[in-house]
Amino acid sequence: MVKPKPAAKAKPAAKAKPAAKDKPKEKLVDKTSRPIVIDATDHIAGRLSSNVAKLLLQGNRVSVINSEKIMISGKKNAIVSEYREFLKIASILNPKHGPFHPRKPDTIISRMIRGMLPRDKPSGKASLERLRAYIGSPKELKSLKKTQLEKAKIRKTSASYITMAELARNVGWHE
Question: What is the pTM of this model?
């Protein structure tokens, strides 16, 4: 005995979509036209790096000035000895093959920020190209508004920290 096929169900009518509200389109601001200038004086290095990395991934151009005044928390001797151990890492075959370790404050902070970006992805590579780090404050950025990240500011007395310039001088940076 063959069962009769049930009648095909009619599809319900598509619900009418609500009319889009007529709101004026906001003017798109080109995030790469003007950099966000961050004055890094008295900022903790790790917190500053993570905030800057997040800004870069959002598509902003970021310039970090006064990178020699960035603070690293901890005891001076411990930080310097740890960085010196890091400098001993080299190629077994020939040290000129790398890895290359930064000694200037601006390159140290750039490498820290680079470590917080997805460098292997196109978004990370593009983000890294939008980063600039400076020792001091260059002339072309003096006229722009400087911001400080409250989340990254030091909270204790400066005796609990070492500046990036002190670390750099101890590992071979000559001003």
Answer: 0.78
